[in-house]
Hints:
Elements: E1 22-24, E2 42-44, E3 52-53, H1 55-58, E4 68-70, E5 75-76, H2 79-84, E6 94-96, E7 103-104, E8 118-120, E9 125-129, E10 142-144, E11 149-152, E12 166-168, E13 173-174, E14 190-192, E15 199-200, H3 204-210, E16 215-217, E17 222-223, E18 242-244, E19 265-267, E20 274-275, E21 289-291, E22 296-297, E23 310-312, E24 325-327, E25 340-342, E26 347-350, E27 364-366, E28 371-374, E29 394-395, E30 403-407, E31 410-414, E32 417-418, E33 423-425, E34 430-433, E35 447-449, E36 454-457, E37 471-473, E38 478-479
Parallel strand pairs: 1-2, 2-4, 3-5, 4-6, 6-8, 7-9, 8-10, 9-11, 10-12, 11-13, 12-14, 14-16, 15-17, 16-18, 18-19, 19-21, 20-22, 21-23, 23-25, 24-26, 25-27, 26-28, 27-33, 28-34, 33-35, 34-36, 35-37, 36-38
Antiparallel strand pairs: 29-32, 30-31
Amino acid sequence: MNYNFLSSPIPAQLANLTSLSIIELSICGLQGSVPYLPQLQKLDVSGNFGLRFDLPNMFENRWPKLKILDISDNEVTGSRSFLSSISNAPMLVSLSASMSSIQGSLPPSIYNLSRLQYLDLSYNNITSFIHSSISNLKNLHFLDLSGNNFQGPIQSSICEIVSLRRLVLENNNITGILPSCITMLTNLVEFRVSKNSIEVNVSLISLINKFHLSTLDLTSNRLTIDTNENLHLDASKPKLEILALGSCNLKVFLTFICILTQLKVLNLSHNNLTGVIPPCIFKLENLVYLDLSNNKLHSPLPLPPLSVSSFDLPHNKLEGNNSFEGVIPIGLGSLNSLKILSLRSNKFNGSIPKEITDLYELQILDLSINNLSGPIPVSLGKLKLVSNPSPGSVQRNSIGVQFQLVIKGTMRQFEIMYDYSSGIDLSCNVLDGKIPEEIGLLNGLVMLNLSHNHFSSNIPASVGNMSSLESLDLSFNKLDGHIPQENFVV
């Protein structure tokens, strides 16, 4: 009964279906308790958005054949006692409980589920330590504890789970030193420990050479890198597609990055990188996301590869003239898959190149806090942006993919890219002339900021046609006339 709007209790008559082995009630609006069905092998009640499932009462009984349980995206009543009784499902192979309002510490019973291969407890309110008994889960392939309040160090016993392929511990309060034995987990393809306080003294070269990693995210940790190891990367090994080393106190570009030919996402933001961007980075033909923001880089601005979908270089400033400057390269208009273009807070001058309006996949355009002059290109109305909001469509856990926008006067940091996210920020420049009527063609635009410029004349009535607009800032200009009212919907 997945994907319905039933909004009623789970029928007690299900108990009569004594041979039933699979129940899927995902995103359907049902609530309450699933009747006791000892033959059940799979139960999926995920995505019921705030409806309360009474799982503690369910698991007072023994579920001897239950292998797959998915309660994610729910508000689980008595979640702490539910986990304490989870040992009543001893055959569990997969437990998905992300965003289920689970609180408290992890009970010891969770480590008795020795058959578990998949465990996702992400984005709850768990305050706990990663217990050394985690090594009892020797069959784990996937472990996600992100977005909780796990504290203390990563126990070296985790290295005994040699079957681990995906280890995700980001957004916690984990401290201590990353165990050197982590390199024993040679089956790892995804390793994410960002936004903790881990001291990483294991060399990146060792991590990359010994694993078959496709994702490595060490963002916002205490990272020490021996740059002399740059030349020792095994060129046959690097399969990395995502490398995120933001806020890791990097001072120089790591030359081995240029050997990572499969790289799609590269985040080196919020470091102390200086000088120019190595040209070899722009020869990574598979790169689709590049974030070098908040460093100390300076001009010239090279062009990324044609496949890049996000180009984010704001806040690259040193005192004096050391920042990206000159005109915005018109070649950016050839990056057909570009979705995010952020050149905020640099020293670009000249006009906005009309070629930018050829970026038909663009969702975010941020050229704020520069010295751009002249009018807004009339062709800006050609941008498709997004016209059909679909809040259920979201790229969760998009590693390193984040951006900032000023919305309703407040700087906001986005770490999740929705299909319907769209915004244009041209504020804090010296743009002038009329705001073109064609801007009203941007029906899918959610945010528009043209403040702190020299725009004159009246506000075009076509702005009222922008049906998706949630935030409009025209302050600190030279506009006159009347605010158009006939098309605005408040």
